[in-house]
TrEMBL record:
InterPro entries: Pds5
Subcellular location: Nucleus
Taxonomic source organism: Ancylostoma caninum (Dog hookworm)
Keywords: Nucleus
This protein's name: Uncharacterized protein
Length: 309
């Protein structure tokens, strides 16, 4: 998949690794896997198991080339589609690494002008239709939480992408703005955000318990300065909370109750940070988004504020 070249300098031997052949290999492999039937359809339950174990090695997952990453992610996603609903990887840590790699690669969706944007969108549609990320629920709780947290962070970064936010439209040859291009851009963005929110809400609904680390991401983008500076990710956080309100109600109320008793959010909320003011900011914003979520803790908040004064 790659070749090496030996260099000698200053009495030391070094090896340079060239990844160009890897990119070509992944492109060809991805195009073949894209049209491959599922294992159930062809009656071969173990087909591609050895292949995905090979591709899930760290030497591939840690490749720094964005082009290699997207083609590899498409390969992995299609193999998971071929196996669905079964899990082809027996090692939970390897499955976690593959899912996190796929999710992290989605960040390319923040740049619709990227020549490979269609591949990123294909990857998103693929894992959305197949519900690939529900495999995270087969992992130990901490690993599942890592995957969901990464999906949330990546989704917020996509929503807040500079190209999506840009109000500058492509111009036609005579210099006038092309409304059609602007409409297409808006439609693509809505599709991307809709698919991301759909996957996130499904995971929040089906996971045994939503962790504080996951709530930390939602809270972080809900309060200032993110609320003021990153309106797209703020709106996305609002939508996720509203859509998943039933799934989040018990854990949010429990977390806020404990936090009001201690005077600060738990250490797992590293993005939001500690401090009484941060806690109060979160409660205030949650009250604006979904008042029912925080209604049970308001009397406790009142006592806390009276105690401070």
């Amino acid at each position: 998949l790659f070749y090496t070249e030996k260099e000698t300098g200053k009495g030391q031997e070094r090896w340079r690794i060239f990844f160009e052949p890897v990119l070509v290999y992944f492109q060809i492999l991805s195009e073949a896997l894209q049209v491959s039937d599922t294992n159930d359809e062809c009656g071969q339950p173990d087909r591609y198991r050895t292949l995905i174990c090979h591709l899930a090695q760290s030497c591939f997952l840690e490749n720094s080339s964005k082009d290699v990453q997207i083609w590899l992610a498409c390969c992995l996603a299609d193999i998971l589609r071929v196996f669905a609903p079964n899990v082809p990887l027996g090692d939970p840590s390897q499955l976690r690494d593959v899912l996190i790699f796929i999710v992290r690669t989605l960040k390319g969706l923040e740049s619709p002008s990227n020549p490979l944007f269609r591949r990123y969108f294909y990857l998103l549609e693929n894992i959305s239709v197949v519900s690939t990320l529900v495999l995270a629920l087969e992992l130990p709780p901490d690993d599942a939480s890592q995957v969901i947290r990464m999906l949330l962070k990546t989704s917020m970064e996509i929503a807040n992408g500079k190209e999506w936010k840009s109000e500058v439209r492509e111009t036609s040859e005579d210099g006038s703005a092309t409304e059609e291009d602007g409409d297409d851009k808006s439609e693509s963005r809505d599709k991307v955000i809709g698919l991301l929110i759909g996957m996130i809400s499904k995971l929040l609904r089906d996971v045994d318990q939503v962790s504080a680390e996951v709530l930390d991401v939602l809270f972080f983008y809900l309060i200032n300065p993110q609320k003021l500076n990153n309106r797209e990710s703020y709106n996305m956080s609002r939508q996720i909370i509203q859509v998943s309100q039933t799934s989040l109600e018990a854990i949010i109320q429990s977390l806020l109750t404990q936090s009001l008793l201690s005077g600060t959010l738990p250490g797992e909320c590293e993005l939001v940070g500690s401090g009484r003011k941060k806690l109060h900011d979160v409660i205030l914003e949650l009250h604006e988004v979904a008042p029912e979520l925080v209604a049970p803790v308001l009397p406790q908040l009142s006592c806390s504020l009276l105690g401070v004064h």
